[in-house]
Write a structure and sequence with these properties.
single chain; 7-stranded mixed beta sheet; 4-stranded antiparallel beta sheet; globular; about 35% helix
Length: about 400
Amino acid sequence: MSGIQTDAALAACVLPDYAGGSLLNLMASIEAACGGPGRGYAPLHAPPAGFGSARHLVLLLIDGLGDALLRKAAAGAFLRAHQQGQLTSVCPSTTASAVTTVLTGLAPSAHGLTGWYIYAGEVEEVIAPLPLWIRGQHHPHAQAERWCRKVFIDDPLANRLTRACHVVSPWFICDSPYNRHHTGRAERWPYRGGVAALFETLESVLRRSEAPTYTYAYYGEIDRLGHEHGIGSQEVEADLARLDAALEAFAARTRGLDVEVVITADHGFLDNPPTQQIHLVDHPVLARTLSGPLCGERRLAYAYVNPVEREGFECHLAEAVGETVFPIPSQAALDAGWFGPGARHPRLAERVGDWVLVLREPWVIIDQVSGERPHDQIGVHGGLSAAEMSIPLIYLPPA
């Protein structure tokens, strides 16, 4: 595969703007506004006017609400009216990496969760860190609590802030081992139901709090519907309309409470046609060069290569998939700072394999392990396209 072709393809990619325009920098600014000591990351280079002035600061993360969706959708007028600009996500542009950055205030390079699947050498398994299951087993591992202490960094953002901290999230994830570990001393408030229940719970938390607070609220329906129906689907459009109306009503009800609301996302989306999928099972010669399953994401995967196959891997990959995949030596991606500046997780290099496989838009690469059920997705993310990486920065000032 030509290095010139790969360089040209990567020139069209959007890398995180960790210098002041990424989700990581938003969290650095939130930490500073809420009395935290910081972890050495740059703040936002263009924070909203008045940011940090209210008694109550709310961060609402809308999973999957990329900037492209907000710009193109018919719904979302209230959100667009309060949009301050765009940010980049982190790398990879996926929930496991980005939400962990939100909950810890750390770059993926520091917290070490580099995708939906990671190879965790501490337990010698490929795991999905959010549900804490071994790949191929669709239930939390019996040792999930112990695994948290072994695999995850113990540095929750909430434990560093001087404000009372709250987390509002769906009931089925609110008290998961992952969430309990990463939310630290924050008080967790589960909600059942859709967007109305989210804002009812959030409002209740704010009304009972006299002292200054920081509240992280999470809404995941757009992500779920995007995966299932596609990000351009009627289902996503209808849910965005419900969310927009509920947010406007919430803003009206909370006037006078001295609340500022920052709204963003963890990533955006692409729709992936079935004709633009690479299935590793169709390429047995390539598959034999690997020492284990692919990790990371379908749009940005980490390949672990058998030592005796290192010289031939790139050639086999080019023969199998042509120019739909751009292989980057993992060390080169680390050196270029894709996963963030500053301190690194002690197992970061292990968790990004030997090669980072960057997929051309909108291609994906799919492998399957024993016990794993096929899982079709129309909407995908995790890659470095503008649609996946660009997320909105929305700000509702205190009123």
